[in-house]
Design a protein that fits this description.
This protein is an alpha+beta fold and about 180 residues long. The protein has 2 domains: about 110 residues, no CATH class; about 60 residues, Nucleic acid-binding proteins (OB fold (Dihydrolipoamide Acetyltransferase, E2P), Beta Barrel). About 45% of the residues lie in helices and about 20% in strands. It has a 5-stranded mixed barrel with strand order 3-4-5-7-6. Strands 1-2 form a two-stranded antiparallel sheet. Helix 1 runs antiparallel to helix 3 and helix 3 packs antiparallel against helix 4. The chain is rod-shaped, with a radius of gyration of 27 Å.
Length: about 180
């Protein structure tokens, strides 16, 4: 088998792999990113790994494509062609890794937030807070409307619909005070 056929075969293996992965929707598993939706409905996409199926297949595709160019178009020697094919494979794999990592970072920024991020935010009372009792508030967090049990810091009652400010979070309960100003 000639080196040109090896390059063509590697190029075809990479292309067929990409087509199958795309057609079957296996991108998350093949990228090594472990994409899943947790019990709370939040998307978790993990991180790309440099030695994953997708990155290795991208390297193989780039190596084959670079080899085809070096052998058939540039008519370079075996050593020079292998070097070019290796650089082409690494460049394409690095680009794919960078793109996947950027995608995963965007999805990781999703809807997860720490309870301390609620402090200082305005919320709407959706279930009245009785004097020295517990009600419920809704607050916008990362583009989603989140609900939380709520108490007032001073034990006062707050009617439904009032806008309050979250001052403290303890466990799953937020402590609020009436919003001052307009």
């Amino acid at each position: 088998m000639s080196i040109g056929l090896v390059y063509i075969s590697l190029l075809m293996v990479g292309v067929v792999y990409a087509l199958i992965a795309g057609a079957l929707g296996w991108l998350g598993d093949l990228a090594g990113g472990d994409i899943h939706v947790d019990a709370g409905g939040h998307l978790d996409a993990g991180h790309a790994h440099p030695i994953s199926g997708t990155i290795v297949a991208t390297f193989v595709t780039g190596f084959g494509g670079g080899g085809v160019l070096a052998h058939y178009l540039f008519k370079w020697s075996l050593v020079k062609g292998l070097g070019f094919a290796g650089v082409a494979g690494l460049a394409l794999a690095a680009a794919a890794f960078g793109i996947l990592e950027a995608i995963f970072k965007q999805t990781q920024g999703g809807s997860e937030f720490g309870s301390e991020e609620m402090v200082g935010r305005e919320a709407e009372v959706i279930t009245p807070i009785p004097a020295h009792g517990i009600g419920e508030v809704a607050v916008q967090m990362k583009g989603q409307r989140e609900r939380a049990s709520a108490r007032t810091l001073d034990g006062s009652a707050v009617p439904r619909g009032q806008v309050v400010v979250i001052d403290k979070v303890t466990g799953s309960t937020v402590y609020v005070r009436p919003r001052t100003g307009s």
